Amino acid sequence: MTCLPAHTDKKLGLVIDLDTCVGCQACVTACKEWNTGGHMAPLTDIDPYGGDVDGVWFNRVHSYEHITEMGGRTVNFPRSCLHCETPACVTVCPTGASYKRTSDGIVLVDEDKCIGCKLCSWACPYGAREFDTDVGVMKKCTLCIDRIYNDNLAEEDRVPACVAACPTSARHFGDLGDPASAVSQLVAERGGVDLMPELGYHPTNKYLPPRAHTTRAASVLAPALEAVRAEGGFLGWVDRMLSN
Amino acid sequence: MHPAFSVVFFTTATGTGYGLLALLGVLAGPGFVPPDFWLGLVGMGLALGLISAGLLSSAGHLGRPDRAWRAFSQWRSSWLSREGVASVATFVPAGLFATGWVVLGRTDGWVAVAGLLAAVGAVITVCTTGMIYRSLKPIAQWHSRYTLPGYLIFSAMSGGVLLNALLQGFAIGSTILLAGCMLLTLLGWGWKLATWRYNDRLEIATTANTATGLAGGTVRSLEWPHTEENYLLKEMGFRIARKHKARLRQITQVLAFALPVLLLVAVFALPWPYAAVLSTLAAIVQFAGMLVERWLFFAEAKHTVTLYYGR
């Protein structure tokens, strides 16, 4: 059924820390490696060694330059399915292939029902869904349902592949519907935000904005070669000599 | 948005076909259109042919057309599913209406009722098509109050001009229908101009800032996650038409609106067969213009995912 559940028992999702993400793409390759043999397998690559490469990925890391009056910085930005509370990708689906689970809120595609009309990818503002031209069906992030409930894995490994792979712990997994969970507390503490809140999709995943610039160090906007402070003594004498 | 030809042709052809079906269904009962065998065969053949060709074309857009039957199941939530249900349901009264007219040679009584039901089904189906686009929040140019009336007006307009060509071809043209077609074409022209004006002044609340959650300042894309175009850019990042926007809008206005109006004006003054030739030409030119209009409808639409790519 593509009607949305009125309530989900859990709201499983990710919290992504834009302050600590270094853009190493480890989550991207770990996701691809796990999921190309996982629930939505295969994640087809078209012409992978040729000049016109294309393929299905659930997670992509962009890099942005964010400039404010406080200065500029590079922000690495992983983008994947946000497992929204009101996902239009589910309600627009004509076949019932797209659905949101009542138990944990994960948004999934039943590949055996998908007709490949692509309307769900139009309805998703975040570009989370990618069409597999080889199989003819839509694919998307499963939040690694085949890892997080997998009794064959050690308990600490029962997290999405992207979370397990992150070397800087920029990705956190948990129940965002439980205010006492570690991820919910992290969001509260760091002021986690929704992406495109104005569209009203109510994404479950949250993004932690980069921390404010420190005021203790020299401003990154200070002109190059400007004296940080008036030098006295030997260095002051060298400075005066060289300035003549 | 990428203007896939299958979808461009689908919405244009079914729009014209349902417009013609609705007008025939409403006008045949009261005797405005005579229950002539050849008129029924050609008229209903055109209407149902355009609708069927459009629906088949839309199935060609699917990744797995063999499973298309599944699309009738989710009418509770999905406008696409509702469109599928409405389009198939409309074939029932339309088929009865065509049978009564062409086989039994009558358009009164139950045949007239079937015609009215087919007209209702046609209007509902066009509404569901418009709502598919109207309901998509990530595409501001579609998620506007101009979209649904646009689909209805263009359907009535192109269906009306085609009906006029049909009746003129059978030398039973009516000046009322001719005047109605001109008014509908002028209304369509005005509506399209108003839509473009609205889209050009659109202030979209979603920006690179809200897309990335980075508040304040400017957010500039430094590096994409991939070096080649991916599905998202091929499907949602189409840009060619924006480059030729002004020229394509001119072509749309000439073919879909200006030329048909001029041709219809000439039809007022001309006898058969010249009136029939010009009326047919008006319908053909307008259909070509509507294909360009629908192509632009897709190509000018900007999806929020392009913000992630700095476009």
From TrEMBL, chain A:
Lineage: Bacteria, Pseudomonadati, Pseudomonadota, Alphaproteobacteria, Hyphomicrobiales
Residues annotated as domain 4Fe-4S ferredoxin-type: 12-31, 71-103, 105-134
Family annotation (SUPFAM superfamilies): 4Fe-4S ferredoxins
Name of one Pfam family that matches: Fer4_2
Protein name: Ferredoxin
Listed InterPro entries: 4Fe4S_Fe-S-bd, 4Fe4S_Fe_S_CS, ET_IronSulfur_Cluster-Binding
Superkingdom of the source species: Bacteria
Gene3D superfamilies attached to this UniProt entry: 3.30.70.20
CDD domains listed in its UniProt record: PsrB
Any one GO MF annotation of this record: 4 iron, 4 sulfur cluster binding
Keywords from the named record: 4Fe-4S, Iron, Iron-sulfur, Metal-binding
UniProtKB/TrEMBL annotation, chain B:
Naturally occurring in which organism (per UniProt): Mesorhizobium wenxiniae
Protein name: DMSO reductase
Record InterPro entries: DmsC
UniProt keyword terms in alphabetical order: Membrane, Transmembrane, Transmembrane helix
Spans traversing the lipid bilayer: 7-32, 38-63, 84-104, 110-133, 145-163, 169-191, 251-270, 276-297
Domain of life: Bacteria
GO biological process: anaerobic electron transport chain
MF terms (GO), sorted A to Z: dimethyl sulfoxide reductase activity
GO CC terms of this entry: dimethyl sulfoxide reductase complex; plasma membrane
One Pfam family, short name: DmsC
